[in-house]
Design the sequence.
């Protein structure tokens, strides 16, 4: 079955460390997205990519970086510059040629700074 | 300015009753799309229903229907015959076109629904 796989499910990071969250999809979707979810604030867009080797900043990109070397993969790096990284991170993808097509989401990664 | 507003942080409904979750939006784009997602406690987001701005009829998907009032800029989700498994967070989202011609989605803050036995 096609879908989006995020790993790990839980991640602990020491202050000052960079960590990378994995997102892989086998849906052949062109567009991929990273969202951050904090309690009471809904989902906020970090980065998105419409095609391979291209990505754009979302609303809260500071302290994060991404790459899109393959269509299937869109890893997110949380750098030490991100001052409050503890949150739930969701990766999503969608078919760009169908405008009414909703996102397909992964199951998320919960990042905690210790 | 908030583009998607969900004013109900939490809602209770009796099993088998219907419930309406509110969503209002703000956009000047004549072409837009509105979505509802369900997030159970496990964390994954499940796509429920879509309404396009030019759709003449309200969207329906099984027990889910969308009460779309374009002039009032509201897109309320109606869940009929509530089930215990409907207990979850519900998010309203709007598709917005970016300056580069691509799409991104803006989410509301969510409504936590609890279905009572």
Sequence:
């Amino acid at each position: 079955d096609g879908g989006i796989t995020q790993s790990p499910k839980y991640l602990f990071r020491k202050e000052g460390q960079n960590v990378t969250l994995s997102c892989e999809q086998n849906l052949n979707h062109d567009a991929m997205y990273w969202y951050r979810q904090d309690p009471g604030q809904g989902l906020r867009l970090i980065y998105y990519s419409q095609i391979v080797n291209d990505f754009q900043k979302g609303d809260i990109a500071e302290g994060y970086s991404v790459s899109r070397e393959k269509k299937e993969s869109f890893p997110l790096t949380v750098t030490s510059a991100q001052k409050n990284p503890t949150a739930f991170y969701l990766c999503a993808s969608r078919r760009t040629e169908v405008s009414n097509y909703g996102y397909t989401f992964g199951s998320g990664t919960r990042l905690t700074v210790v | 300015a908030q583009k998607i507003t969900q004013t109900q942080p939490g809602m209770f409904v009796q099993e088998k009753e219907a419930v309406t979750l509110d969503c209002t939006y703000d956009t000047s784009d004549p072409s837009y799309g509105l979505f509802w997602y369900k997030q159970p406690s496990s964390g994954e987001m499940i796509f429920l229903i879509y309404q396009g701005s030019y759709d003449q009829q309200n969207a329906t998907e099984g027990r889910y229907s969308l009460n779309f009032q374009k002039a009032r800029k509201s897109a309320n989700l109606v869940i009929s015959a509530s089930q215990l498994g409907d207990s979850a967070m519900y998010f309203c989202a709007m598709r917005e076109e970016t300056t580069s011609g691509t799409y991104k989605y803006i989410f509301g803050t969510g409504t936590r629904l609890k279905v009572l036995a």
